[in-house]
């Protein structure tokens, strides 16, 4: 029992020494790099790496010395146990050595005490008849504790000594990938319209398509020549919801539900709304017969320039 406790205490000491040595190496390297920025790059690197090597050798020597000390203390402890308990303890130890290695290892990890020998690990504490056993920690708990220490050493070494990618660098790399993905997606959006920098199209093909869309969807309310019926006249200079390509595009896109005009964005692509809006602007000044009376406010191109 005492031998196993001694082992665990020394193992924890070794792990703590490993962690502290890695921290010392990292801090020494960082300090050397900071204070020698103005020096020659070769000597700066040599000093930083030299400190790391020195810390590593020191750590290795300390580990070897601790293992040697552990072995000596275990032997001394075994001799004391044999002297106190007599030949039976020695015979029991020899019997354990005959067990398979995996069974011996499991016993060493768990420090299992048979029920009939629980008196040997019974503490003097007594709380209302409840007594306490000096059992070892569960193997899974000890394993997780050791794994976290090993992980911490590896993490520290990779990110702070070997120059692993920092969180900031990971963030910047992820943002770069996101921007590239965003640009690639935008390139596939053939129907995308930039409403902030919209200008009316004068392309005959666009206007021809716009006329077809108008004839299919808009004549019921605005009539064939834009003179207006249920909807307002589209050929004069007066507009209820603003003139110019941006306002006309927004009106067609979002509709005017309170006046019965649907939002055409649910049925038309952005490019189609742009083309029909451009076509509607070509109707201004055509003066068709039986045109509906002007409605809204007179609009001039200068107003659009002021808004921009």
The major sheet is characterized as:
2 strands, antiparallel
Query: What's the total helix number?
Result: 11
- What is the tally of beta strands? 4
Q: Which value, in Å, is the CA radius of gyration?
A: 42 Å
> CA-to-CA gap between the ends?
85 Å
Strand order of the biggest β-sheet: 1-2
Order of helices and strands: HHHHEEHHHHEHHEH
Average pLDDT, all residues: 77
**Helix-strand makeup class:** mainly alpha
Count of separate structural domains = 2
Low-confidence parts lasting 5 or more residues at pLDDT below 50?
Answer: 28-39
Globally, the shape reads: elongated
How much strand? under 5%
Helix percent reads: 55-70%
Summarize the structure in words.
- The chain has 308 residues and is mainly alpha-helical.
- It has two domains: 2-165, no CATH class; 195-307, Cytochrome c-like domain (Cytochrome Bc1 Complex, Chain D, domain 2, Orthogonal Bundle), CATH 1.10.760.
- The protein contains eleven helices and four strands, in the order ααααββααααβααβα.
- It has helices at residues 2-35, 41-85, 87-98, 101-110, 139-161, 167-188, 204-217, 219-222, 244-254, 270-281, 301-307; strands at 122-127, 130-133, 238-239, 297-298.
- The chain has a two-stranded antiparallel ribbon.
- β1 and β2 form a beta hairpin.
- α1 (2-35) packs parallel to α5 (139-161), α2 (41-85) crosses α3 (87-98) and α7 (204-217) packs across α10 (270-281).
- The longest helix has 45 residues, at 41-85.
- The radius of gyration is 42 Å and the shape is elongated.
């Amino acid at each position: 029992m005492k031998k196993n406790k001694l082992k665990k205490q020394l193992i924890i000491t070794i792990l703590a020494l490993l962690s502290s040595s890695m921290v010392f190496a990292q801090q020494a390297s960082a300090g050397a790099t900071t204070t020698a920025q103005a020096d020659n790059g070769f000597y700066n690197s040599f000093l930083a790496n030299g400190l790391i090597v020195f810390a590593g050798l020191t750590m290795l020597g300390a580990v070897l010395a601790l293992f040697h000390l552990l072995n000596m203390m275990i032997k001394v402890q075994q001799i004391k146990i044999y002297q106190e308990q007599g030949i039976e303890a020695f015979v029991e130890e020899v019997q354990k050595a005959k067990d398979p290695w995996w069974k011996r290892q499991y016993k060493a990890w768990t420090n299992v005490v048979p029920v009939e020998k629980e008196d040997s690990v019974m503490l003097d504490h007594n709380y209302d008849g409840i007594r306490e056993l000096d059992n070892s920690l569960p193997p899974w708990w000890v394993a997780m504790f050791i794994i976290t220490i090993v992980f911490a050493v590896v993490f520290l070494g990779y990110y702070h000594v070997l120059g692993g990618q920092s969180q900031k660098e990971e963030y910047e790399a992820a943002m770069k990938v996101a921007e590239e993905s965003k640009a690639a997606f935008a390139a596939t959006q053939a129907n995308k319209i930039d409403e902030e920098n919209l200008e009316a199209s004068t392309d005959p093909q666009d206007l021809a398509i716009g006329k077809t869309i108008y004839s299919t969807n808009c004549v019921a309310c605005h009539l064939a020549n834009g003179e207006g019926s249920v909807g307002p006249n589209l050929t004069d200079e007066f507009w209820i919801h603003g003139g110019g390509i941006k306002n006309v595009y927004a009106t067609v896109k979002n509709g005017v539900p309170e006046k019965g005009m649907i939002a055409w964005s649910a049925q038309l692509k952005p490019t189609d709304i742009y083309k029909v809006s451009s076509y509607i602007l070509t109707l201004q000044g055509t003066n068709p017969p039986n045109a509906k009376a002007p409605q809204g406010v007179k609009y001039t191109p200068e107003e659009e320039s002021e808004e921009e």
